[in-house]
Design brief:
The structure is a single chain. The radius of gyration is 46 Å and the shape is rod-shaped. The C terminus is likely disordered. The protein folds into three domains: 77 residues, no CATH class; 96 residues, Immunoglobulin-like; 89 residues, Immunoglobulin-like. It has one helix and 26 strands. Strand 5 and strand 6 form a beta hairpin. It is 1% helix and 55% strand.
């Protein structure tokens, strides 16, 4: 019996469409397991309808022949639909600084390699949320695809697993959250001397927005290096702590260094090693009854070996 001869009434959470012998049922709302749907078609019937024809087979007798005339009758078919409510995923996006919550794109995939897209990409709203509905029960993988603005995307790194595995049940909403940390940079202070010696032990003060950052002042290692990681991008002020050693000439002032996302800024400092010499001057005999001794200090670019 062809489905094409049947008529289906829409309603009770379902709509029907036919194409040849194929019936497509679309879920338009909640379908109760107890709801009974019906399909109807018209059939011819000869019941309770006749046509009588009389004729004479001879001059004495008349013969009556009754012919049944068809009438339209309805054939009904009844059925139920097992259509559980689909599941959903509620996604929440947060960032370390609480900004730029909108515009993050996510895809829902059926495999861990995230090559088979099931739903999306979807984009977060101003509160960082996405509601993904109409999902069949099963396992999905939700992947962050970045921000619609590449400049904003480069400022953050996804903290935690990406993609994340999510299990969806019929009629239920699974939740998943993604947290992005601010992308950080680094600062490397390189200390050198004109002799290549005495590279360790130099102290540097590092400030941001007028305040010393945690750990300041920092001290150079034996190679003259200071490495400071996990720095928020921005401008930093680097100052060398003064030294009381008179044999050294240090750079005056400060350096302004810009730290960028995912990069290491390098700040070079040069100190010159000096010497101190003492000259004694005295007058010739007879020129002055009181000998005059003067101490003249000078600076040289090398430490005196015999001081």
């Amino acid at each position: 019996m062809s489905l094409g001869n049947f008529s289906f009434a829409n309603g009770n959470g379902a709509s029907f469409s036919k194409s040849g012998n194929t019936l497509t049922i679309t879920k338009t709302g909640t379908i109760s397991p107890s709801t009974v749907f019906s399909a109807t078609r018209s059939l011819p019937s000869a019941e309770n309808s006749t046509v009588s024809i009389y004729y004479s087979a001879s001059s004495t007798y008349q013969t009556c022949v009754k012919l049944y005339s068809p009438q339209v009758e309805t054939l009904r078919a009844y059925f139920k639909i097992n259509a559980p409510n689909p599941g959903a995923i509620a996604l929440v996006k947060t960032t370390e600084d609480g900004q730029n919550l909108s515009g993050w794109r996510f895809g829902v995939y059926s495999n861990a390699a995230c090559t088979t897209l099931v739903s999306g990409p979807h984009t977060t709203d101003s509160s960082g949320k996405i509601s993904i509905t109409g999902l069949n029960a099963g396992t999905y993988y939700v992947k962050e695809l970045g921000h619609t603005d590449a400049g904003i995307s480069s400022r953050y790194t996804c903290s935690g697993d990406n993609p994340q595995k999510v299990t969806v049940s019929n009629g239920a909403t699974a939740t998943v959250s993604f947290y992005n940390k601010l992308a950080v940079g680094a600062l490397e202070i390189r200390k050198s001397t004109n002799t290549g010696n005495h590279l360790d032990g130099w102290k540097f003060i590092v400030k941001k927005d007028g305040t010393e950052i945690p750990g300041s002042p920092f001290t150079t290692n034996e190679t003259g290096i200071i490495r400071i990681s996990n720095l928020a991008p921005g401008k930093y002020l680097v100052l060398e702590s003064p030294t009381e050693d008179p044999y050294w000439s240090v750079e005056l002032g400060f350096h302004t260094v810009t730290v960028e996302y995912g990069k290491t800024a390098v700040d070079q400092w040069l100190n010159k090693e000096q010497g101190l010499g003492c000259f004694t001057k005295s007058t010739k005999p007879g020129q002055n009854q009181r000998p005059l001794r003067q101490h003249l200090w000078y600076r040289a670019h090398q430490r005196l070996q015999d001081r």
